[in-house]
Amino acid sequence: MHKQKSLVLMGNEAIAYGALTAGVGVVSGYPGTPSSEVIDTLLELARMGEIKKTYVEWAINERVAFEVCLGAALVGARSLVTMKAPGINVASDPLISSAYSGIESGMLILVADDPGPHTTQTEQDSRWYGDLAKLPMIEPSSPQEAYEYTILGYEISEKLKLPIILRTTTRVNHVVGNVVIREFKEPDYKPFFKKNPKRYLRAVMTWNRERHEELLETLYKVEPIAEEVGLNKIEGSGDIGIICSGAAYNYVMEVLDENHILDDYKILKLGLIYPLPKKKIEEFLRTVKKVIVVEEIDPYLESKIKELAYDLQLDIEIQGRRELFKKSGELTPDDVENALLGRPILGDISLPRRPPPLCPGCPHMGTYMGLRAGISRAGHRWGEVPVMGDIGCYALGLNPPFEAIWTEHSMGASISMAMGMKVAGYEKPVVAVIGDSTFYHSGITSLIEAVNKNVNILVVIMDNSTVAMTGHQSTPGYSISISGRKLNPVNLESIVKSLGIENVAVVNAFEHREVAEKVREYLKMDGVKVIISRGDCAVLRRRSGIEQVCWVDLEKCTGCLACVKLTGCPALTQVDNKISILEAECTGCTLCMQVCPYDAIIIKKLRET
Fold this sequence. Notes:
By secondary structure, the chain is α/β, with parallel strands linked by helices. The chain is 38% helix and 19% strand.
């Protein structure tokens, strides 16, 4: 009997613990809320010496992470790759191919969807990838299930010789609960790899057709295995049925319990999402008079269950996201309660908008200040030169006072879209802004294309030395991994210069005039130009200790608000028509001091350097 203990864990932490209990050998991924804490947890455990044999590191992007884990699973190591919803789009090429090659040891693909969305550019439902890739998909509802499903995922994966997709949503990833865990299992395997061209090569079309047929045959085995391990369960005894999965199951049970109507309903909780457990659903449909489907985000289960009922010639009313719930946005217990009790669908409550600001002392403030001034000095009005944005906290530059970026599409798209505008004949200059991590992730290939086609664009790489928005994870520029592993840092300037770009400049993001002058100069040149605007993330500087702050000489301050209007720094506040600086928020970046026309802002040393 394995030793057990109960811990209070976040859903993501439970997945990490489940992987370790299953003896995972290789873990890789790319940061993205709501999935980041899985690898963050494993890296912290590695740093503390709790795990020694498991390889755990962030990858440059999701495709690379996927292929690292696929390679590991082919030679005998259990592997785990993690990503948020848009990340599975990046990894989709090897994802779909992996179903044809299969694996030897268990491989789990965590994809975390973000109903709402809260922190994601799209409200994507990744369940459709199960159908597209023909890979089994399971979905937990709680931290305890997240732990157990992770372990079961490896067992199912190895029985089928296929990767398994573990689909979660924000409320499962980030909810905290008691989790009973067992002892960690050190990875124990001897790497092997046997040559098998038919299985691993996609160059021969007849082989591909054969592998496709074999894959379809394998999928017939999934439902019996799911029943064997208890992924799907039926509860209750009423004549009205509810079919649900994931976080929606918790909302259903909460509403039924609070309204004392548990006895009126029968609930089918699905843990297996793809392939659909048709026998279990048919059994359920034949015992109820009506079915309500509760799910996040699309009417995925609803569509498939209606199709199944039609094929079975069952005369049963089935309603779900299409009829009973709002068409977009995250479900709430109130939504479920209104649907079950027959109340009208309510729209979202309109609350005052509070745009998220850049952090006090963020280097991106100085970059945007310089970009705005530089465009003006180059003879253009602010607002007539497109600034193509990318994915990262610098996207907050869309808010006042900068209102800088015009687009935010997908990782690396700022450079490609800027190029597209120029090759289409756009006459004005075009600027692309992109973060260091996003550049490593996808911007490199876009920049290669721009250089090869010799387009006239200015690329500003906003280098804050971390993946800031998702929790300050490492980039390829790190020399020491968060886990303590020694790395070979990749130099950003060297990459850019190696492409043959002649005009490359590194500027101090906290010296906005330096940024502005280089922007002015480069906007007047032809070809691809790159400015690396460098300044450490304010959060990283706080961790290492703030050495100085800015404060206001009230006798000199006129309350002109120049510092507020030009920097937008949240550490600045107005008291009695004068400016005051919140010392606890200030990082001493001096951007406000640089723009004060009355020299009313000065430095206060906290400790000597």
